[in-house]
């Protein structure tokens, strides 16, 4: 998969892209990430990429021409047909795991980062396919959301996490929060690892993990359960959890 990021501040991406899973994914060829500065597509001597808003108001607005040319350039360079152009915008659809899976299905993902007071709205109307937000709050620019989306989408690609089902164990992948994880030492500070995880009985371990995933979701995000299609086993496990909570 090719991910193109359009940003006035390309140096911001060096850290996140140069470490851990994203670095390994690039080194192994599972993803190719390119950051393009729209300022490189300005033709005045000062390379101006923003201007005052029509109608007055505070702050500066990013001009449409440099962004349009930058997007056009990465589209022509990649020559990929299955692509999605996404604007980072606090007024966009809230990004979630389902959206990450959807975006992972494209050959090319182009993430357009706004800054200052935002981007000339003609980019939203005529250039991008959709606008996405990572939450109901405002950031200085779209760079941090682009990093979040790049990481979340990359995890969905086969081979990026090593194990074929690695991403399927993550919180939200199947609608539930993830079950608790433990590692060595078996005992720390008097705190024990649950005995079932040491039993070697894979069926019991899988049942425990499903139950704890349901328990965590019920306690922290009960709203997620409302929209889920639960199996008969899930209903049974939830009844067990509620009985335990009631002290039964």
Automatic annotation (TrEMBL):
UniProt catalytic activity:
guanosine(37) in tRNA + S-adenosyl-L-methionine = N(1)-methylguanosine(37) in tRNA + S-adenosyl-L-homocysteine + H(+)
* Residues bound to S-adenosyl-L-methionine: 114, 134-139
Q: Where in the cell is it found?
A: Cytoplasm
In terms of superkingdom, the source organism counts as: Bacteria
InterPro entries named among the record's database cross-references: Alpha/beta_knot_MTases, tRNA_m1G_MeTrfase_C_sf, tRNA_m1G_MeTrfase_TrmD, tRNA_m1G_MTases_N, tRNA_MeTrfase_TRMD/TRM10
The keyword Transmembrane helix appears for this protein = no
Q: Cross-referenced Pfam families, in alphabetical order?
A: tRNA_m1G_MT (PF01746)
Q: CDD domains per the record?
A: TrmD-like
Q: Which family does it belong to?
A: Belongs to the RNA methyltransferase TrmD family.
NCBIfam families to which the protein is assigned, alphabetical: PRK00026.1 (NF000648), trmD (TIGR00088)
The UniProt function text for this chain reads: Specifically methylates guanosine-37 in various tRNAs.
SUBUNIT field: Homodimer.
Name recorded for this polypeptide: tRNA (guanine-N(1)-)-methyltransferase
Q: Organism source for this protein? A: uncultured Sporomusa sp
What does UniProt list as this organism's lineage?
Bacteria, Bacillati, Bacillota, Negativicutes, Selenomonadales
């Amino acid at each position: 998969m090719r991910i193109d990021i359009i940003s006035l501040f390309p140096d911001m991406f060096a850290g996140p892209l140069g470490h851990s899973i994203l670095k390994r994914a690039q080194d192994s060829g599972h993803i190719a990430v390119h950051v393009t500065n729209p300022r490189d597509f300005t033709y005045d001597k000062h390379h101006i990429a923003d201007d005052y808003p029509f109608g007055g108001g505070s702050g500066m607005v990013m001009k449409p021409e440099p962004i349009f040319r930058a997007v056009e350039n990465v589209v022509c360079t990649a020559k990929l047909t299955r692509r999605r152009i996404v604007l980072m915008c606090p007024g966009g659809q809230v990004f979630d795991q389902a959206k990450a899976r959807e975006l992972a299905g494209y050959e090319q993902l182009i993430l357009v980062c706004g800054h200052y007071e935002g981007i000339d709205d003609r980019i939203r109307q005529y250039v991008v396919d959709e606008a996405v937000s990572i939450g109901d709050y405002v950031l200085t620019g779209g760079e941090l959301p682009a990093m979040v989306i790049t990481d979340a989408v990359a995890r969905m690609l086969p081979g990026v996490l090593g194990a074929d089902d690695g991403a399927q164990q993550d919180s939200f992948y199947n609608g539930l929060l993830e079950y608790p994880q433990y590692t060595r030492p078996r005992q720390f500070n008097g705190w024990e690892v649950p005995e079932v995880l040491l039993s070697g009985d894979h069926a019991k371990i899988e049942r425990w993990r499903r139950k704890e995933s349901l328990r965590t979701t019920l306690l922290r995000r009960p709203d997620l359960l409302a929209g889920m299609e639960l199996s008969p086993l899930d209903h049974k496990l939830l009844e067990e959890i509620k009985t335990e909570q009631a002290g039964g």
